[in-house]
Design brief:
This protein is α+β, with helices and mostly antiparallel strands. The protein contains four helices and ten strands. The chain has a single domain, classed as Cyclic Phosphodiesterase, Chain: A (Alpha-Beta Complex), CATH 3.90.1140.10. Strands 3-1-9-10 form a four-stranded antiparallel beta sheet, with helices on one face. A four-stranded antiparallel beta sheet has the order 2-7-6-5, with helices on one face. A hairpin with a 2-residue loop joins strand 5 and strand 6. The structure holds adenosine-2'-monophosphate (2AM).
C-alpha cells in the first residue's frame, strides 16, 4: 500500500523564504523546506493498481498555466487546540478549477469523493494540542506575509512515508506528463 496525495510543489526561493519564518513556536514540528507544498487532493492509502488508475485519470488533465500567490497566515484548530499553522493562498479561479478536475479524476478512478471544502494552504508547522496563545505571535508576525507569484504549469502526485523526523514526500509523477 502507498499513501498518496495530489499537490503543488514549492520551489527554491519561496521554500527558503518560508524556512526563514519557520521558528518561534515552542514544541512546533516545522515542515522541512523540501516538504513544503499545497495539497490539492488527499487520496490516502491505495494499492498499486489503484495508483495506476488514479495516475491514468490524472494524466488526461490539461490546463493553461496560472499564477499562485501565497498570502496571509492562519491556523487550524481541533477541539479548541491548535493542530497546524499555515500560509494562505490568494483566491484563484484556475486553481479551484484544477482542484475540481483532480477531484473528478480521483472519483472516476474509484476513490470516494472528498467531503471537505477545499481550503488551499501551505502547512508550515504542526502541533500537538497547541494552545491558541502559543501561536498568536507567529500569526501576528506573518499575517502580512505575501510572496512573489509563481506559475503553476504542472501538478504532482506525491507519496508520503513516515520517517524518524516526520513525513517525507516523494514526487511520484508530474502532470501533464513531461517530455
Ligand atoms: P495539511 O497540510 O493540512 O496537514 C499530506 O499528508 C498532505 O495531505 C498534507 O498536506 C495534509 O494536509 C493532507 N492531508 C492529510 N490527511 C488528510 C485527510 N485526512 N484529508 C485531507 N487532507 C489530508
Amino acid at each position: 500500500m502507498i499513501r498518496l496525495f495530489f499537490g503543488l510543489e514549492l520551489l527554491g526561493e519561496l521554500r527558503m523564504r518560508i524556512a526563514a519564518i519557520s521558528a518561534g513556536i515552542d514544541r512546533a514540528r516545522w515542515v522541512a523546506p523540501e516538504n513544503l507544498h499545497i495539497t490539492l487532493r488527499f487520496v490516502g492509502e491505495v494499492d498499486e493498481p489503484a495508483m495506476e488508475y488514479i495516475a491514468g485519470e490524472a494524466a488526461a488533465i490539461r490546463f493553461e498555466p496560472f499564477p499562485v500567490t501565497l498570502s496571509g497566515a492562519g491556523h487550524f484548530e481541533r477541539g479548541g487546540r491548535v493542530s497546524a499553522v499555515w500560509l494562505g493562498v490568494e483566491p484563484e479561479p484556475a486553481l479551484a478549477r484544477l482542484r475540481d478536475r483532480i477531484e473528478a479524476a480521483a472519483v472516476r478512478a474509484g476513490q470516494p469523493p472528498e467531503g471537505r471544502k477545499f481550503r488551499p494552504h501551505v502547512t508550515v508547522a504542526r502541533l500537538n494540542r497547541g494552545r491558541p496563545g502559543e501561536v498568536r505571535d507567529w500569526l501576528a508576525a506573518n499575517t502580512l506575509f505575501r510572496a512573489v507569484p509563481f506559475t503553476v504549469a504542472h501538478f504532482t502526485l506525491f507519496s508520503s512515508t513516515l520517517g524518524r523526523s516526520g513525513s517525507n514526500y516523494i514526487a511520484e509523477c508530474r502532470f501533464p506528463p513531461e517530455g
